[in-house]
Amino acid sequence: MDIQSEIFNIREQSPMTSTAQEIQSGKLFATAAERIIEQGGHFSDPRHGQVGIELENIVTDNEGRPVNAEERDRFIATAKTIVLESAFPVTLQQELGAAQIEINQGTDALFSLDNIEPGVVLTFFKQIDQFLLESTEHQRMKLLNLGFHPFADIRNVPRTNKPKYDLVPTHHDGNRLASSRTLQSDLNLLNEPDATVAALTNSLQFNISMPDVTTAIRAMNIMFQMTPQILAIGGNAGFAESVDTNWSDFRNQIWDKTHRTAAGQRVFLPEDFILSPEDLFLRMARFPLILEAPNSKAAFDIATGTNWLAAKLKFLCNDDLDINKLLLEFRPLSLQQTPEENAAMFLLTLGRLKLAMETNEPMFDEFDAVRVNGELAQRRGTQATLVTKRFTGSHWENSMVTGQEIRELEIHHASLGLSMTSDGNVPMSRYNAFRSFFEENIGVQNPTERLRAELGSSWETGSDSERREHIRDTLINSGIMR
């Protein structure tokens, strides 16, 4: 059966994808998928390995409450002026939440994988931090460097006034599985959140241009496999509704469960490794596009945009659906608390991926190992016990790691990856430079664990307002909200 017929067959089986609009959108998506698959075997990018960055952040007032959209837009205008005057190569724009901003590179990638330097990366993140702080001072606002807002309301969260930011949450609220309405008990919350809660999440993402489709699919699966280790080390979303959820990082969990429908799991980790572009497109076909698509390119872009897995493969095409570039995004990591941690976690993830690709890291026999690791890492952070892959210098072997072993192992892996030359050699001076950078900027405790210690042990016995004030004051005093 050809790919178009397979897509039609999948979408005919669900009421959510068999409405008149979804039938038309599905046809357009299927046409695009077929066109892209035709090119997959011969596409190549000689300029692959270019790396870009994206940050999400929440703007608050001086009390830590999320600002409204008008205030957020005023902040963006101020920040854009500062960026323009300094000729800094980033752009700012609105995000889903009315208080959210997104910062990413302009049209050109910021770094090259083959010659990336920790000092340059750190300077870049510090410059972002500096112009954001300057903007907050102008507007008398603050920025929250957490993966989730710790005391905002988690229902009917104000959003940016765009149709997609109304239609997409409304669809997921209306079609959410009853079995997924467990977040209130799972996370010790006061209320069950709705799909608008995604507007309170902040991430640190990167994208890298891929040389060809086969390599991109393999790298995507490596990203899935390494996601739990990265989350354990960089967990930074443990508090909501002024309570401690006892999770290290629930950002992906709360997004996933509020967007879980009969079509399956749209967020975080898939059910299995993805074997090919066809496999990816058939998985995407299960889910409604929700938004109206005027043409095949628009349908494909919508399907890609709402494919919220931990690793997202983007086929960047012109209007005729000719592939210009393949970008692979790493998406599950929360924004960190400091520019130093953002730089270090970005490089740790990038180096871990590079080592896996250079040394042909094997996949687990069963994807369930990845999913179990993911659950444990989100809940327990650096206290988790994970079954992972360990590089011995000549091959990879399965290894069970616990606590600080996770951090130590992945710092070693990333340092190897970033210092390894194309012929497999590892200059020790370069390895040591990366290792020292990681050791200095990635703490023994992950960000959530550190914040939990700073908050103390008795604050949760207070009233809602007392808990909120204690969290706010701790965030301000520790520089997490500033």
From TrEMBL:
Pfam families cross-referenced by the UniProt entry: GCS2
Origin, by domain of life? Bacteria
The GO terms describing molecular function are: ligase activity, forming carbon-nitrogen bonds
Cross-referenced InterPro entries: GCL_type2/YbdK_subfam, GCS2, Gln_synth/guanido_kin_cat_dom
Provide the coiled-coil residue spans: none
Name used for this protein in its record = Glutamate--cysteine ligase
Q: What organism, scientifically named, is this protein from?
A: Candidatus Dojkabacteria bacterium
Upper lineage: Bacteria, Candidatus Dojkabacteria
